[in-house]
Amino acid sequence: QYVDFTTLNNVVYAYFSSSNITTGTNLYLNNGAGYELLEHVVFDNSITSIPDYAFKGLSIKSVVIPESVTSIGMYAFSDCYQLTSVTLPSGIEISNYALLSDGINTLICGEIPPVFATDTGLTPYCINLYIPSNAVDAYRNHYIYSKMNIIPID
What we know:
The protein has 1 helix and 14 strands, in the order βββββββββββββαβ. The protein is mainly β. An 8-stranded mixed beta sheet has the order 1-2-5-7-9-11-13-14. It has a 4-stranded parallel beta sheet with strand order 6-8-10-12, with no helix packed on it. The longest helix is centred in the C-terminal third of the chain and has 5 residues, at 136-140.
């Protein structure tokens, strides 16, 4: 499947809207001269959910999920071993193993903590969690987030 993308400073970005998000591990980006490695994923506000297995096993490095997304399906970003940074909207519901990737070391979240299913797939002790300073108590009192390195930002 062809997905429009832009190369900025030798970094490939794919921009997904509700008309071109796919499920499965066979997502290729063709720039007309060959295939490019998908490194950063940004979704537009027409996306309301990310389906099960949508990006499983891809070589992405970062994901920015907008406020319009209310849920992430099972294994959606699992086995993305180069994935290090994930930005999540407030209160998003995250299914089991959606973020099962050992490399994640940065989470950026909103005021309302994301709601994880039973098993996050994350290694919380290795994660820097950036949150609004007025939300520190909500995150410190949570069984998953309290194990992360909480870094308040304004």
